[in-house]
Structure formats: structure tokens, C-alpha cells
Write a structure and sequence with these properties.
Length: about 170
């Protein structure tokens, strides 16, 4: 295949296609080869456009959509579980996040903690035992502290133990 000289202007798709079709007649390109050639031309065209944008001083920054925080996703998960069980489905990552952060009143507000306790009532197996052990550990850690946040954590941990030990 002959190498083309780079052109300073960006070619129109019709021109590129006619060039590719012209090459097909000359070189007998298969459809796969034609597709690869079209991709290469498109890539070069995009690169040239980006270079022109850069020279003009315009940045082509793409903004990423804002993702909801773990707390927001967990709250949505609990809300769906409590109000719309038919459409709710189990999500291991949400449950894990909730179990790790359930004692933190900043991440799991009080209004969602009540729903979380209902959710935890259905917890089974190893997760139930691990949660009880984690709650006992939080109580031990908070015994010596006189901090109000530690008292809230300990209170939540006692509620969890009371619920899951019965």
C-alpha cells in the first residue's frame, strides 16, 4: 500500500471514502482491510483536529459526570429495600459498605439507621456473626473515650448487638 503525504487540512468523509474505494479498485482491498484503513484515516483526522484545537488555544476537556457518594448509594439501596421490595435486588457492595460504616452517624444518618436495623434483622450466616463481633469491638474501643461521637457509635453498636443476638 502506498503511503500518503499528510495533508494540513482535514478531509471530508466523502473524500476519504472515495480515496478508499479508489484504492480498493487498484489494490483489491478486502472489506476487512477497507474497514481497518477507514479506522486509521478517522484516527488521523481526529488527531489533526485535536492538534488544531491545541494550536487555537481551545482545550478539549471532557467533564466526567458526578458520581453519587457511597453514602448516597447506600441510602438509595436501603430506601428501595424498605419501600419497594419488588424492584429491590441484593447488592453485595452496598451491604458491605453499610456494614463497614453503620456506626458512623455522618455516613449513615439516624433516619436511615432505623431502616438499616430492619435490614440487619434479615442478615444470615457469617455476615451476622461478623457484624456482632464488629459491634462488640466498637463498644470495647469506645469504653475509654468520653467523646460524644464515640458515645453515638457505642449506642449504635449496642442496638445492633441487641437485634442480632436475639
Amino acid at each position: 500500500m502506498k503511503k500518503k503525504k499528510k495533508k494540513s487540512k482535514v478531509e471530508e468523509p466523502e473524500e476519504v471514502l472515495s480515496e478508499v474505494q479508489g484504492e480498493e479498485d487498484e489494490e483489491g482491498l478486502t472489506p476487512e482491510e477497507r474497514r481497518i484503513l477507514e479506522r486509521k484515516i478517522k484516527k488521523e483526522r481526529k488527531k489533526e483536529e485535536k492538534q488544531q484545537m491545541k494550536e487555537a488555544g481551545v482545550s478539549a476537556q471532557e467533564t466526567e459526570p458526578v458520581k453519587p457518594s457511597g453514602s448516597e448509594m447506600a441510602q438509595d439501596y436501603l430506601t428501595c429495600w424498605s419501600k419497594n421490595r419488588k424492584d429491590w435486588r441484593f447488592q453485595k457492595t452496598r451491604q458491605t459498605w453499610l456494614l463497614q460504616h453503620m456506626f458512623d452517624s455522618d455516613k449513615v444518618p439516624d433516619e436511615f439507621f432505623a431502616v438499616l436495623l430492619e435490614y440487619l434483622d434479615g442478615l444470615k450466616g457469617g455476615a451476622r456473626e461478623t457484624t456482632v463481633k464488629a459491634a462488640e469491638s466498637v463498644i470495647r474501643d469506645c469504653e475509654d473515650s468520653e467523646d460524644s461521637a464515640a458515645a453515638v457509635k457505642a449506642g449504635r453498636a449496642r442496638e445492633v448487638i441487641q437485634l442480632l443476638s436475639s
